């Protein structure tokens, strides 16, 4: 005879949200993932940020069907008494199942192979230009090509963080470390931790690290209240220096993007040197060491300091285009304060995301980010299928009255700068100003 089911309410589930006491619900069954958090392939942040609620939509978005077989060992015997599924979630899950039946998650196409070929070609030409040519113009062009190489390696790192891009996990890991750590100097462990947090908490001012760029940028006046970053585990103080920098952020945005790679280098080092749980830490550090060996050596082969500085600036500036692209998809979209919720997954992903309208022949340039809405809803979907599924997503958004925002590349830049400008003007006009520093006083003195 079957044992009667034991139930708990959503309010009781919400009590289990602390490290060491993490419960989640998937399709109404409650799982204790407290111990699993440290071994979770996606990191501990998704579980910490979504604990205490039903996370079915996020689970099916991020996990293949084979993951279901491992859930039973975490089942704690409880079912969610007031478990319900909204009509939006029902349609979303049906659509995901439809794509699964079509085999779209398994058919990866030739995009990764072509990207890797492009990386090899760009690296070879850049090395040849520096080591075998005497022309200053060739040396500068080689710096630009190095920047293009880093962009393509970024797409490899991005895709491999979401799904298995090679035949085996081992080869995928090799591709990650080679293209990310060794060739670009960016820790793939940092990238996965940061990017998973972004996807789970899309456009949450407190939980999404992709919106937390103080003291240089804020996308909302809500940051003026010195919000707490649950990613960086510290308060984001809106002090006088931050106000000064933010007040001119619509002018400094593109110049800062030209050197934004420095922040990625720094964040990689910070994570690898902390006590946080980092899988394959030694492997990650060795990969970074490879980059900081070959890249400075290559720069040192240039004939003078002028060319060396220009080479570095050009490689950083060209890569800055990718940093701009990341910002375009979210800076001008809807934001919110608070933790992400599992019961409005589809709504939060669509409202916090902007697509970039472009022709098919420009897909290589955007690396899949032009279909950011589709990517956020189906993160495991290879980018070669994003254009295919787009009409289905548009139809679902229309059915439920949800936004499906899209703009041209130039319009998206305009919207982003407008968002930054609005926040900058608000920073200047606060009615209760914080103590200003001397630079602020000098620049803003009237008369």
TrEMBL record:
Belongs to the fatty acid desaturase type 1 family. It is a multi-pass membrane protein. InterPro entries: Cyt_B5-like_heme/steroid-bd (IPR001199), Cyt_B5-like_heme/steroid_sf (IPR036400), FA_desaturase_dom (IPR005804), Fatty_acid_desaturase (IPR012171). One of its GO terms (molecular function) is oxidoreductase activity, acting on paired donors, with oxidation of a pair of donors resulting in the reduction of molecular oxygen to two molecules of water. Residues 5-89 form the Cytochrome b5 heme-binding domain. Signal peptide: none annotated. Pathway: Lipid metabolism. This is Cytochrome b5 heme-binding domain-containing protein. One of its GO terms (biological process) is lipid metabolic process. The chain crosses the membrane at residues 111-131, 137-158, 170-191, 253-273, 285-305. Keywords: Heme, Iron, Lipid metabolism, Membrane, Metal-binding, Oxidoreductase, Transmembrane, Transmembrane helix.
């Amino acid at each position: 005879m079957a044992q009667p089911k034991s139930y708990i309410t959503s309010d009781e589930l919400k009590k289990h949200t602390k490290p060491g006491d993490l419960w989640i619900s998937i399709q109404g069954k409650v799982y204790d993932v407290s111990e699993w958090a440290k071994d979770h392939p996606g990191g501990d942040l998704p579980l910490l940020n979504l604990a205490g609620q039903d996370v079915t939509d996020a689970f099916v978005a991020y996990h293949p069907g084979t993951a279901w077989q491992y859930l039973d060992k975490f089942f704690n015997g409880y079912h969610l008494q007031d478990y319900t599924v909204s009509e939006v979630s029902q349609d979303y899950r049906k659509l995901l199942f439809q794509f699964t039946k079509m085999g779209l998650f398994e058919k990866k196409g030739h995009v990764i192979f072509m990207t890797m070929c492009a990386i090899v070609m760009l690296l070879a030409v850049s090395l040849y230009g520096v080591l075998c040519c005497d022309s200053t113009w060739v040396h500068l062009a080689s710096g630009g090509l190095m920047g293009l190489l880093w962009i393509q390696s970024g797409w490899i790192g991005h895709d491999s963080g979401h799904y298995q891009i090679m035949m085996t996990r081992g080869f995928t890991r090799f591709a990650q470390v080679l293209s990310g750590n060794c060739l670009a100097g960016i820790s793939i462990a940092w990238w996965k931790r940061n990017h998973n947090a972004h996807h789970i908490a899309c456009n949450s001012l407190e939980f999404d690290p992709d919106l937390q760029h103080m003291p240089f940028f804020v996308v909302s006046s809500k940051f003026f209240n010195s919000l707490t970053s649950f990613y960086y585990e510290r308060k984001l103080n809106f002090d006088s220096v931050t106000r000064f920098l933010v007040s001119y952020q619509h002018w400094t945005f593109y110049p800062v993007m030209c050197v934004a790679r420095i922040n990625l280098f720094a964040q990689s080092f910070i994570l690898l040197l902390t006590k946080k749980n980092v899988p394959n830490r030694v492997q990650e550090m060795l990969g970074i060491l490879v980059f900081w060996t070959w890249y400075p050596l290559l720069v040192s082969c240039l004939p003078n300091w002028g060319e060396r500085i220009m080479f570095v600036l050009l490689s950083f500036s060209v890569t800055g285009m990718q940093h701009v692209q990341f910002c375009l998809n979210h800076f001008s979209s809807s934001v919110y304060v608070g933790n992400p919720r599992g019961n409005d997954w589809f709504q939060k992903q669509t409202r916090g995301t902007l697509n970039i309208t472009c022709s098919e022949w420009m897909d290589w340039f955007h690396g899949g980010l032009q279909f950011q809405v589709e990517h956020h809803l189906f993160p495991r979907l290879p980018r070669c299928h994003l254009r295919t599924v787009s009409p289905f997503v548009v139809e679902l958004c229309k059915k439920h009255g949800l936004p499906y925002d899209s703009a041209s590349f130039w319009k998206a830049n305009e919207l982003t700068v407008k968002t930054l400008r609005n926040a900058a003007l608000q920073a200047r006009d606060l009615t209760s100003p914080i103590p200003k520093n001397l630079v602020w006083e000098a620049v803003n003195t009237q008369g």
